[in-house]
Design goal:
Elements (H helix, E strand, L loop, with lengths): L2 H32 L2 H16 L9 E5 L5 E2 L6 E2 L2 H10 L8 E3 L9 E6 L4 E7 L8 H5 L3 H4 E8 L2 H6 L12 H12 L4 H10 L4 H16 L7 E6 L5 H8 L9 E2 L4 H6 L4 E9 L4 E9 L1 H8 L9 H13 L9 E9 L2 H8 L5 H4 L7 H24 L6 H35 L7 H35 L5 H31 L1
Parallel strand pairs: 1-4, 8-9
Antiparallel strand pairs: 1-5, 2-3, 5-6, 6-7, 8-10, 10-11, 11-12
Helix pairs in contact: 2-3, 7-13, 8-10, 9-10, 12-13, 16-17, 16-19, 17-18, 18-19
Length: 516
């Protein structure tokens, strides 16, 4: 071969290789230029974790956690969102939603953006918290930064349950306030928790025995009150606790879809059976009927089953983690802790709403609690007053009746408005205040006396107006035609009942004063 020709070919080959390298480099730069800052952050976090833990892509022992998609830069809606980080975490680590080893942790929008990677083989975890100032840069600028310039925190700690139980004082405090979230997620995930349980945990943003109790109640309902056809659950979370977030995720029972949660006073809770967890109704919208259960969750038994050693007494988070993991052993056995307090039927939508209305105590409605006697009698007074109102309306609004009949009925009807306002005020304000004040009668003696005085004054005003209505009703009964005599008679009965109710309230007040 001609040496000159051979030399030319070698030069051409070198030039070709250089040109190809330039093209490849240019292509890489083009991809980098199209990347967002979020793309760089997710990838950088995963690459740091790969070196620190270490692991290779698609390792099934790795769990990735992040609040990407929830954190908003600057903390204001409409700002820079962070969901693009998710794709780059997946692309670099191999952790995916479908594999169950990528958890998107629900957080409020103003919280910092962070990533965590856990290796269940070693128990080690790497936490990285993003410096928000990088969002003022280009992706190309971010790639030039050192790791500790991109992340304000990079921490590596062994958070495996065995390590923490052996050394409870070593509970990490370097995860930016996300310690309980990350530790509980990592260890319960490593214990092969069900997918839907972990979805509820994502929403609740940590795992605690309260959330687990909700999952167990769901299991109990699946077995003992299963849905059929187009039925759905109506749930009254009373008292509310962490369990109710499981219902929001797994049953789609959100507040916006009329999921009801209400608190009881300590005094009311003391009247209930121990550990009451809420009211659960299987509702059939086609028939407007349902059947339900009041359930309880036995926390004493759950604590005993968790076998928490005395050495953990000063380590609250460790105790919760231990209970989290021990309760996992009872998934599929909800009857171990969940019990029925009461079974009941609902025969109309009105009965259902009576349980849900604000101001009603659903356990009083179901007969599990004795109502406050004064307010119970005041409610009777209100009901009787509505009887006066509704029956006189039937007469006053009828165009076929004489003017004299209608005018008399209208006068009584107008009085009923005053009566209703007075009775409702006594119940909602005076008696509610009295109920609270009598919890500490010694400290509130003066206020109790003032409130009782005011109640008596209002009852006096009510009685005076009722006497006027009574006189007019006597007149009405003498002039009303047979076609509407029943309404006049019902008005008369309602007035007599209201008089009796006023007397009963005054007697109860006297008994209260004697008791105090």
């Amino acid at each position: 071969m001609n040496k000159k020709s051979s030399g030319k070919k070698q030069v051409a080959l070198v030039l070709s290789i250089v040109a190809m390298a330039i093209l490849i480099s240019a292509a890489g730069l083009a991809v980098a230029e199209n990347d967002s800052v979020c793309d760089c952050l997710g990838q950088r976090a995963a690459e740091v974790a790969k070196e620190e833990l270490p692991f290779v892509m698609d390792d099934p022992n790795i769990l990735a956690m992040t609040d990407s998609g929830y954190a908003i830069v600057g903390g204001k809606v409409g700002g820079t969102t962070t969901e693009e980080c998710i794709d780059s975490v997946i692309a670099s680590s191999g952790c995916t939603l479908g594999n169950g080893n990528l958890l998107l942790v629900h957080r409020s929008k103003e919280k910092p953006l962070w990533f965590a990677f856990f290796n269940k083989s070693s128990g080690e975890c790497v936490y990285l918290e993003v410096d928000s100032s990088v969002f003022d840069m280009t992706a190309a600028d971010v790639t030039e930064l050192l790791d500790d310039e991109v992340f304000t925190k990079i921490a590596k700690v062994n958070i495996g349950a065995d390590e923490l139980f052996a050394n409870p004082e070593s509970w990490p405090k370097v995860f930016g306030g996300n310690e309980f979230t990350i530790v509980t997620f990592a260890n319960v995930w490593a214990d092969d928790a069900p997918y839907e349980f972990m979805k509820a945990a994502e929403f609740h943003n940590h795992i605690c025995p309260g959330l687990t109790s909700g999952y167990m109640i769901i299991e109990y309902l699946d077995e003992n009150l299963p849905l059929q056809g187009n039925q759905n659950y109506e749930i009254i979370a009373c008292p509310p606790w962490c369990k109710d977030d499981a219902f929001q995720v797994i049953f789609d029972k959100t507040v916006g879809k009329r999921f009801v949660a209400m608190h009881l006073t300590e005094e009311d809770e003391e009247q209930l059976p121990d550990n009451v967890a809420g009211i659960y109704i299987r509702w059939d919208g086609a028939t407007n009927t349902g059947d339900g259960l009041v359930l309880a969750f036995n926390w004493t038994k759950a604590s005993e089953a968790s076998d928490i050693p005395d050495s953990f007494k000063d380590y609250r988070s460790i105790r919760k983690l231990k209970m989290d993991l021990e309760m996992m052993n009872y998934l599929g056995q909800p009857e171990t802790f969940v019990t029925v307090v009461k079974e009941f039927d609902i025969n109309s939508e009105a009965e259902l709403m009576e349980l849900k209305y604000a101001g009603n105590n659903p356990y009083e409605v179901l007969g599990l609690m004795e109502p406050y006697p004064l307010q119970e009698e005041a409610q009777r007074l209100i009901d009787f007053t509505w009887g006066i109102h509704d029956n006189t309306e039937e007469i006053a609004d009828n165009e076929t009746l004489s003017k004299g009949v209608k005018t008399t009925a209208e006068k009584i009807h107008v009085i009923s408005h005053t009566l209703l306002h007075t009775a409702q005020y006594i119940n909602d304000y005076n008696l509610e205040a009295l109920k609270d004040l009598t919890k500490d009668p010694e400290s509130n003696a003066a206020e109790i006396n003032d409130t009782i005085f005011t109640i008596r004054e209002y009852l006096g005003e009510y009685k005076n107006a009722l006497d006027d209505a009574h006189e007019l009703t006597d007149v009405l009964e003498g002039i009303v035609p047979d076609s509407h005599r029943a309404y006049a008679g019902a008005t008369h009965d309602a007035i007599h009942n209201a008089e009796g109710s006023v007397f009963a309230i005054l007697q109860l007040i006297e008994q209260l004063e004697e008791g105090l």
